[in-house]
Amino acid sequence: MRYLYLKVIGIILLALVAGSFAFPGLINKAIDGANSVFGFIIPHFPEQPFHLGLDLQGGTHLLYEADLSGIENENKSTAMQGLRDVIERRVNLFGVSEPVVAVQESGDHYRLAVELAGITNPNQAIELIGQTPFLEFKTERPAEERQEILDAQAEIQDLSLEEARQHEKWSLAISDPNFVSTELTGQYLEKAEIAFDSQSGVPLILLQFDSEGSEIFERMTAQNIGRQIAIYIDGTPISAPVVQDVISGGRAQINGDFTVAAAKEIARNLNAGALPVPISLVNQQSIGPTLGEISVNESLKAGIIGFVAIILFLIAYYRLPGLLAAFSLLIYITLVLSLFKLIPVTLTLAGIGGFVLSIGMAVDANILIFSRMREELSKEQSFAGAIEEGFKRSWSSIRDGNITTLIVALILFILGTSFIQGFALTLSIGIVVSMFSAILVTRTLLRIFVGTMLEKWRFLWI
Prior knowledge:
Blueprint: H1 2-22, H2 24-38, E1 51-52, H3 54-57, E2 59-66, H4 73-94, E3 100-106, E4 109-117, H5 123-129, E5 135-140, H6 143-156, H7 161-166, H8 170-173, E6 179-185, E7 189-196, E8 203-209, H9 211-223, E9 229-233, E10 236-239, E11 251-254, H10 260-274, E12 279-287, H11 289-318, H12 320-342, E13 346-347, H13 349-378, H14 383-415, H15 418-447
Parallel strand pairs: 1-13
Antiparallel strand pairs: 2-4, 2-12, 3-4, 5-6, 5-9, 7-8, 8-11, 9-10
Helix pairs in contact: 1-2, 1-12, 1-15, 4-10, 11-12, 11-13, 12-13, 12-15, 13-14, 13-15, 14-15
């Protein structure tokens, strides 16, 4: 019995922590009230917002068509993946929270879908994304110049942005103190490919320049033996190998502590930066925050109405077990919402639909358990025996139903697009938590009544 009470206390504590994380605003209001009345100094719970997707938060959906007419068929998918990586890097630099950049292939059409949640004025993003990925090679800056830049940066570091921009050394201070740009850019690179060291087996990257690029690269290596030549894509360094000797013939080799996956990604990005892959905007959809807020409010209203209807049905039909199931479902909801914040899950309308469906699965598990209990109690089984037998006989149905749904959700997540993946993810999380809720929480709450007067009131249970 002591172990049972410990489980009940554990469940209550878990529900309180999850509820505080899921609904910190309500808890913080209660804390403010206690602090003002009793003079306490209880700190607030941290308020972490839900991550809302494009259709709830508002934002912009952009669809680009890529012109791959100059690329061989076997290289088109790789080029698109490289382009996707570069565009995603650009969007991240733009400051968009959790952007979605996905490649869409349909026949001979290669498209790039970009979802920018929270960006309702997409002009700047369109301009940024529409640029061709830029690859460049930089050499080490002389020590004197590096020191000048560092000194300039030190002079303006304590100034405000407006004051710094007016400073005479502003242009110098925003320069790269370590590397200086050269004339060697991606337009001279024919291809980049992954290879393996013949002795160590470590992956490396091979670069092949055209004739003009070969001459430039040979001069660069001759002038920078023992120093680094950095490789940048869109202003971001991806490698900075040290020149060991003069390199002629237009072939260079990048050595480093690469994994195979990392080496493939760098080679893909190099090719994306070198290849001219023009993209043109073919579709643009903007969703205002007002429409997103309406969607959230309507979804919440529908969810609350549905939840209240379920609770009323459970209590009316199953009486006390239905009331216990209502508490179990409340705990289930707080746990799932907390997980959505912790993971975090980007919620869309489809994702909310998956969550609501998982509530139905949780209710279904409780109904199976209660129905089995009723059957046992109708056979004059003891109350404790009816609980254990009811859970034992219903477990196989609950397990099989949830596992088959999880398999479908996994397939949807692997093969689906962003909205379908959101639906599958929230459904999967909800199903896993619903099994915990039905098997552990509901079972523990029912066991509390074993040996009490209420267990003898058969009308509460049958």
